[in-house]
């Protein structure tokens, strides 16, 4: 029994180290400048915030963060709003071909981004959205909306049927049932799917690289990838790591903020006996 506990503890420790070490190394590297970047040490002997100031002074990195935040937040709001309505239709309304439609929705999300890139580029250019945040909002819905629809449909099916029947007896229509009865119970599901959709939109690279051109319109992943040093042969590792730390902190904050909401009881207290 003791050996099992020790082995389990070592396994958990290994998982924690495996998950935390890359971020910790990025933080340590971001505090180094010059030749110190190539020295291996647990903590910099002379920590400096020069890399953090450089990424904001030498390029519009603050604007890049704002672009990513605006695009990701807008996509999450649109995805959840549309997905809740679609989930009610697919999860609570019986009609022929419902299962096939669900598989089609899931199949759309499996297409590689590069397969739809050329057609989507033509659509973006025709709509006049090239080099604008609107192009990212439109393109990000391709992979966030199918995922949110699928997850929320599964959750919607598990909600008690008695709630819907009681609302219908009181004269409530489908829209009222969704917004007044089911939506308050879907907080944990909305938090979980919204967080995953936000992370996917925040980290997206290919569409952001293709549909934006100027520095002011780029998102964070593209801005980091295009960082350059004093010459074409230099990679600014310190600034890249500093930028990576800056954009990772909001995601950690979101996870901590919605942690209780995600793990809370999904329908606790919904039906009283």
Short description:
This protein has helices at 2-30, 50-57, 61-92, 98-108, 113-126, 133-157, 161-169, 174-182, 187-203, 206-211, 220-225, 237-257, 259-263. By secondary structure, it is mainly alpha-helical.
Number of helices, counting only DSSP H or I runs of 4 residues or more:
13
Terminal residue distance: 43 Å
Overall mean pLDDT stands at 84
Q: Indicate the low-confidence ranges by residue numbers.
A: 265-273
Might you state the CATH topology name of the largest domain?
A: MetI-like fold
Radius of gyration, rounded?
23 Å
Domain count: the total is: 2
Please describe the biggest sheet, giving its number of strands, its sense, and whether it closes into a barrel.
Answer: none
Q: What fraction of residues sit in β-strands?
A: under 5%
The secondary structure category is mainly alpha
CATH superfamily of the largest domain: MetI-like
Order of helices and strands: HHHHHHHHHHHHH
Q: Work out the oligomeric state of the chains in this entry.
A: single chain
Which outline best applies?
globular
- Shape-level CATH architecture of the largest domain: Orthogonal Bundle
Question: What CATH first level of the largest domain would be assigned?
Answer: Mainly Alpha
Helix content: over 70%
Please tally the β strands and state the result.
0
InterPro entries: BP-dep_ABC_trans_perm, MetI-like, MetI-like_sf
Transmembrane segments: 7-28, 65-88, 100-121, 133-156, 177-202, 237-258
Domain ABC transmembrane type-1: 65-258
Subcellular location: Cell membrane
């Amino acid at each position: 029994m003791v050996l099992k506990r020790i082995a389990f503890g070592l396994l958990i420790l290994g998982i924690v180290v495996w998950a935390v070490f890359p971020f910790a190394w990025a933080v340590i590297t971001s505090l180094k400048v010059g030749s110190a970047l190539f020295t291996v040490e647990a903590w910099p002997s002379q920590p400096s915030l020069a890399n953090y100031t450089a990424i904001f002074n030498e390029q519009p990195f603050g604007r890049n963060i704002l672009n990513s935040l605006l695009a990701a937040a807008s996509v999450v709001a649109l995805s959840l709003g549309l997905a809740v309505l679609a989930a009610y239709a697919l999860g609570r309304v019986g009609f022929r071909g419902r299962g096939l439609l669900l598989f089609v929705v899931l199949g759309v999300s499996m297409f590689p981004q590069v397969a739809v890139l050329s057609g989507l580029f033509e659509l973006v250019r025709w709509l006049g959205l090239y080099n604008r945040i609107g192009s990212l909002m439109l393109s990000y819905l391709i992979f966030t909306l199918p995922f949110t629809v699928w997850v929320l449909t599964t959750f919607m099916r598990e909600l008690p049927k008695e709630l819907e029947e009681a609302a219908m007896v009181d004269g409530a229509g489908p829209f009222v049932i969704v917004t007044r009865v089911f939506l308050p119970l879907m907080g944990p599901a909305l938090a979980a799917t919204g967080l995953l959709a936000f992370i996917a939109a925040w980290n997206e690279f290919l569409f952001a690289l293709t549909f934006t051109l100027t520095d002011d319109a780029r998102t964070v992943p593209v801005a980091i990838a295009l960082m350059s040093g004093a010459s074409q042969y230099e990679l600014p590792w310190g600034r890249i790591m500093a930028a990576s730390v800056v954009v990772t902190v909001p995601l950690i904050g979101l996870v901590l903020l919605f942690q209780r909401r995600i793990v809370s009881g999904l329908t606790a207290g919904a039906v009283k006996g």
